Amino acid sequence: MRTLDDIREEYEFLEGDERYRLLIELGRELDEMPDALKTDATLVRGCSASVWVYPTEDGGTLHFLADSNAAITKGIVSLVISAVQDQKAADIAAMDVPAALEPFDLKNQLSSNRTQGIPNMIALVQEHATRIASA
């Protein structure tokens, strides 16, 4: 998975439809999420499309699996995951993820229908991280 900095560097040079294509490409690069993990417990509420996020832990480091049934939304969740992927649970819990995503200006780049679930994606990721960090 690409780092958020690498994605931002490429994103800044693109415009309009090219940015959509990049998001779709990011979604395709996500690790495969088994259907068995796509449950009500891993479903992100408030998204216009179905989005699932599942954390795995290895020595306090979290690796997230995610998927969506919509290509652009899958790219958006990939972007969110890129901000936190393979970091310590405590660091993710304390991170200002919206600030990390601010350079992408998603609210002005995408329709409100596509961005409405981003805060819920972030909240679910950070809830998982907080739970794991305090365990």
From TrEMBL:
All copies of domain Fe-S metabolism associated, residue ranges: 15-127
Q: Identify the Gene3D superfamilies for this entry.
A: 3.90.1010.10
Among Pfam families, the record links this protein to: SufE
Q: Which InterPro entries does the UniProt record give?
A: Fe-S_metab-assoc_dom
Q: Which family does it belong to?
A: Belongs to the SufE family.
Q: What is this protein called?
A: SufE family protein
Q: Which organism is it from?
A: Pontixanthobacter rizhaonensis
